[in-house]
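Deliverable D2.4 — example input (structure tokens):
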């Protein structure tokens, strides 16, 4: 670390509400260590996992000291450490896993991070979009492709207008799947259709499973990508074909669901839990390559719900906690 240079940052050194524990001020500026790059950040993404960490979901998180939150971000490489080509200086990059198994994330003017976690951001892509890539876009990619190609398959994406669901619709439909999405209001229904869903059903319908099957002409689906695993489990089992897959990345409404073991076993279902941090490196590399191509070719739609300055990080956290935000929440750093 540099001994005398400071940067503007947000951090917390205790768990609790955003208003109570988040601090904003001067923080020691990092330097690029061996294999690392120093990135001057322009934007930072706020995700549900970041908010949950601040609230205490990882009890030992603060054992090593204060945490600068947020895993996703985007900016420009300002310096490189030993072993990293000098030619990387000046590159526009997007960052993921900045605050995982390490203290300092992207809610700051600078971050030093392993060079492999700083991916080229195409010139046609804004820093705000770059800050939405890591968790939302990579999670969606893993959910869609972790268990094989989806060309010719039928896929249900629940919460299709959400941060992950919106990208999952796009990955799946562009890969040749027939996508049925769920949404509960006209704006979200329109967003799902614009992203590539052939049909949209209302997940608040008492006959949700029947509506999904009707949308697929009565034929069970190959894959379910689910934002509310516990709450939707009965529906997911009912609409999946024998040998189908349920890929899920969240279960906020029912965090400790009961698994109907025999019902799932008799259908030979695959249950896939997805979190970017635990993805195999091969899956991360496949995702970053596909993301790079999609961005360069302008193949993806993006939904940024709110963009606020770093000083309003408390507001950004509270927006996520409402559970009503459909797009990404971004902090503007520089």
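Example output (designed residues):
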């Amino acid at each position: 670390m540099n001994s005398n240079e400071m940067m503007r940052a947000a951090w917390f050194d205790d768990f609790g509400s955003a208003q109570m524990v988040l601090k904003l001020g001067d923080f020691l500026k990092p330097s690029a260590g061996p294999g690392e790059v120093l990135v001057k950040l322009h934007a930072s993404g706020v995700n549900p996992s970041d908010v949950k960490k601040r609230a205490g979901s990882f009890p030992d998180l603060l054992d090593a000291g204060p945490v600068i939150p947020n895993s996703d971000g985007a900016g420009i490489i300002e310096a490189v450490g030993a072993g990293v080509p000098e030619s990387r200086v000046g590159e526009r990059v997007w960052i993921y896993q900045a605050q995982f198994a390490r203290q300092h994330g992207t809610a700051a003017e600078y971050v030093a991070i392993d060079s492999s976690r700083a991916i080229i951001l195409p010139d046609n892509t804004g820093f705000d979009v770059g800050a939405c890539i890591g968790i939302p876009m990579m999670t969606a990619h893993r959910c869609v492709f972790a268990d094989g190609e989806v060309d010719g398959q039928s896929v249900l994406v629940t919460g299709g207008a959400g941060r992950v669901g919106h990208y999952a619709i796009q990955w799946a439909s562009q890969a040749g799947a027939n996508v049925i999405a769920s949404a509960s209001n006209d704006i979200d229904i329109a967003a799902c259709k614009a992203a590539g869903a052939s049909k949209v059903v209302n997940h608040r319908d008492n006959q949700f499973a029947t509506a999904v099957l009707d949308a697929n002409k009565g034929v069970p689906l190959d894959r379910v990508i689910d934002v509310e695993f516990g709450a939707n489990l009965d529906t997911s089992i009912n609409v999946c074909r024998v040998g189908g897959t349920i890929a899920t990345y969240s279960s906020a409404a029912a965090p400790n669901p009961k698994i109907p073991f025999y019902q799932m076993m008799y259908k030979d279902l695959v249950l896939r839990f997805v979190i970017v941090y635990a993805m195999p490196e091969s899956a991360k590399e496949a995702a970053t390559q596909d993301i790079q191509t999609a961005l360069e070719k302008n193949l993806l739609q993006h939904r940024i719900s709110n963009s606020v300055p770093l000083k309003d990080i408390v507001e950004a956290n509270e927006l996520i906690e409402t559970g009503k935000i459909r797009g990404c929440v971004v902090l503007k750093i520089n």
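The two ends are 21 Å apart (CA to CA).
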